[in-house]
Write a structure and sequence with these properties.
CATH class of the domain at 41-93: Alpha Beta
Strand content: 25-35%
Number of strands: 4
CATH topology of the domain at 41-93: Membrane-bound Lytic Murein Transglycosylase D, Chain A
Structural class: alpha+beta
């Protein structure tokens, strides 16, 4: 399974080092939320009291750390928003091969 940031480009910027020189700092560029899923959903989950996205990911995808795949499928920047409203429907993506 690919990680959420595997394909995010690395950027560099010079910053002052405090001694009159500079040093280069590397950082990940901003990762946009994917606009369209590449595969159809595998399921839908209705949020109930106490739901957590990592537990939903473990239940449907077999891996709690795959919560980001659910967030991407629902175009959510803040993962907690997906389980904040009881009765809300959350799209469960089909894992990419």
């Amino acid at each position: 399974m690919a990680g959420r940031y595997d394909f995010v480009p690395i950027a560099e910027t010079p910053i002052p080092d405090g001694e009159g020189g500079s040093r280069t700092v590397r950082y990940l560029r901003r990762r946009p939320v994917p606009t369209d899923p590449t595969l159809p959903p595998s399921a839908w989950h209705r949020v109930v009291e106490g739901d957590r996205l990592d537990n939903i990911a473990a239940r449907y995808l077999g891996e709690p750390l795959a919560f980001w795949m659910i967030a991407d499928a629902n175009r959510a920047m803040r993962t907690d928003d997906l389980v904040a409203t009881i009765g809300e429907i959350v799209v469960i993506p089909t894992p990419e091969p």
